[in-house]
Amino acid sequence: MGFMDKVKDSVKSADEKLGNAIDKEKLDSEIRKQEKAIEEYTKEIGQKVVAVVKEGKDAAQAEIAELMDKIKECEAKIADLKTQKEGIGKKE
Hints:
The relative contact order is 0.13. Helices cover 87% and strands 0% of the residues. It is rod-shaped, with a radius of gyration of 23 Å. The protein is built from two helices and no strands. The chain is mainly α. It has one domain (2-87).
């Protein structure tokens, strides 16, 4: 049975590697999604600042603060996702 055990181990190892690659790809996709959200929030901040300044007013900090909070949330999610990605495939 030594040969069959080796075959089973090889299949199991290949399955684990494939599963890990899929998990990493899912995390990469979510990271890209969060980065895109940051870009959109940043763009929205810029648009708000330009609109307010055109009106001759100071930038509305309250409106910007809300968007900055969303950016910080995205950055925290990205950090967490990267930590999860680094942990994939590591033996405990």
